[in-house]
Design a protein that fits this description.
Structural class: mainly alpha
Distance between the termini: 75 Å
CATH topology of the largest domain: Four Helix Bundle (Hemerythrin (Met), subunit A)
Number of strands: 3
Largest sheet: 3 strands, antiparallel
CATH superfamily of the largest domain: GntR ligand-binding domain-like
Oligomer: single chain
Strand content: under 5%
Number of helices: 9
Number of domains: 2
CATH architecture of the largest domain: Up-down Bundle
Radius of gyration: 20 Å
CATH class of the largest domain: Mainly Alpha
């Protein structure tokens, strides 16, 4: 076999291995984030890498890459010889998250209203209807699954990579707070506000999308203060 062919073959094999590792790291991240958001990994809990590897059924190397990403997002802290600590939920930090999220979410929503594809607009309309049904049934798990899907569609539609780099981790913090205090929430109202935003983006109405985004964050702030009796 010619030398150039051997080199190309090795390069392709190396790229394939790297892509596979990155894919596993992404999968590990999604699984760990899900466990943190739903409080299956409790705030303040300490876990070894071996524990987490068993929970997500993914090996140590991609797991460590996922943990680095989660640490950058302040969802975990890695302590030498102690393991991985899931971050506590701090109300002061949470209100600061909402303050930042207000600005970024409005930007993402307006860009999504302008740039969404027909398929993405249809997906948002369908998600809005499904979320209303989940809220009516009181199905928190389905509501949160749809909320995550809604975020993903709007994020992709916005095509605003720098805003998303900052805003995506904030949504994970918000979902975790909601799970902790979910019994204080009004699921129907939350669904109504989410649906208003989805309808505005689907309609391509940038002004309405920005206003709907602000209204949703207003509710999240109200929810936080009511849950903690800070009003």
């Amino acid at each position: 076999m010619p030398v150039d062919t051997v080199r190309k073959s090795r390069t392709r094999a190396g790229v394939t291995r790297t892509a596979g590792r990155m894919s596993l790291a992404g999968e590990a991240y999604m699984r760990l984030e899900g466990l943190i958001v739903t409080l299956e990994l409790q705030p303040g809990g300490v876990f070894s890498e071996a524990d987490l590897s068993r929970k997500v059924r993914i090996g140590r190397t991609p797991l460590r890459e996922a943990l680095q990403r989660l640490q950058a997002q302040r969802l975990v802290t890695t302590l030498p010889r102690r393991g991985v600590v899931v971050s506590d939920i701090n109300i002061v930090d949470y209100l600061a998250v909402l303050e930042t999220r207000r600005v970024l979410d409005r930007l993402v929503a307006t860009k999504a209203a302008r740039r969404a594809s027909p398929e993405q607009r249809t997906a948002l309309e369908e998600t809005a209807r499904a979320m209303a049904v989940a809220a009516e049934r009181g199905d928190m798990a389905e509501f949160m699954r749809l909320d995550t899907g809604f975020d993903r569609v709007v994020e992709a539609a916005s095509r605003s990579s720098f805003a998303l780099q900052a805003s995506v981790p904030l949504h994970a913090h918000c979902r975790r707070f909601w799970y902790l205090y979910r019994h204080n929430g009004d699921l129907r109202r939350a669904a109504e506000l989410h649906s208003g935003l989805m309808h505005a983006v689907a309609a391509g109405d940038e002004k309405a999308a920005g206003a709907a985004s602000d209204s949703l964050v207003d509710y999240l702030e109200e929810f936080a203060r009511t849950a903690l009796d800070l009003a």
